[in-house]
Design goal:
10 strands, 4-stranded antiparallel β-sheet, Rossmann fold, alpha/beta
Length: 244
């Protein structure tokens, strides 16, 4: 097992966000965490990468409990795991090449030419060309998301955490991003965790699906099992009638 959460709980003040949850993330697969706004999906991602720590329970990374490491100790994990933020989190004052180069300048000894080549490879992987000179203000929402995705893969991670990767995108661009998530899994052999409330994304990219409701997993299983589930709220996501 690549990642495993055991009996993990997290509160903020009096608000219980996650209650005694278990989750298994298998190497090479895409696990989707589906749920509505405020269900605790983004909190779950931040726990996986050590941006916040659990109140109780264990977060195992290749069998090692990383739930309560010192900040400096998370570096070894974060070198192997990329985080795609919901808004993309590109630097407005940097062009696309500079945005992509940023993690490599900070954490590698690559030459400028090697960094440029890595940037070209990453942009090609997300099906963008000749945009290195452009600034975020010049990019469409879909292009910004793809540049952010290129930055997430430039350091050759083993795992990508996606925080609502298709929120705010039109249906055509959503399909493009969904296909890219599958492409990166297939061609780069990355493990992925995708949190979303978008059913089209969940249905397209998931190998496994966990449905988060009121701080607990109301369902966890293969995507085929999720489609056949008789859980009323999960059925509402699949077959319509669900509204944020």
């Amino acid at each position: 097992m690549f990642y495993e959460l055991r009996n993990v709980s997290k509160s903020f003040g009096s608000k219980q966000v996650l209650s005694d949850i278990d989750l298994e993330i298998t190497r090479g697969e895409t696990t989707v965490v589906l749920g509505g706004s405020g269900a605790g999906k983004s909190v779950l991602l931040k726990l996986l990468i050590g941006l916040i720590q659990p109140d109780t329970g264990e977060i195992l990374f290749e069998g090692q409990d990383i739930g309560h490491l010192k900040e400096s100790q998370y570096y070894a994990v974060r070198k192997r795991v990329s985080y795609l933020f919901q808004g993309g989190a590109l630097f407005d004052s940097m062009n696309v090449l500079q945005n992509l180069a940023y993690p490599l300048l900070a954490h590698s000894a690559l030459s400028d030419e090697e960094i440029r080549e890595r940037a070209r490879e990453s942009l090609e992987m997300v099906e963008l060309e000749n945009v290195e000179h452009m600034f975020p203000v010049d990019l469409s929402g879909g292009m910004m998301k793809r540049v952010a995705l290129a930055r997430a893969i430039i350091n050759h991670p083993e795992m990508i955490l996606y925080d609502e990767p298709t929120t705010g995108l039109d249906p055509l661009t959503t399909r493009t991003i969904n296909k890219l998530i599958r492409k990166l899994q297939r061609e780069l052999k990355v493990t992925s965790v995708v949190v979303t409330h978008d059913m089209s994304t969940a249905d397209f990219v998931a190998d496994k699906l966990s449905f988060l409701h009121q701080g607990e997993f109301a369902f966890s299983g293969r995507i085929e099992e999720a489609r056949a589930s008789d859980h009323p709220l999960l059925r509402a996501y699949f077959w319509g009638g669900h509204h944020e």
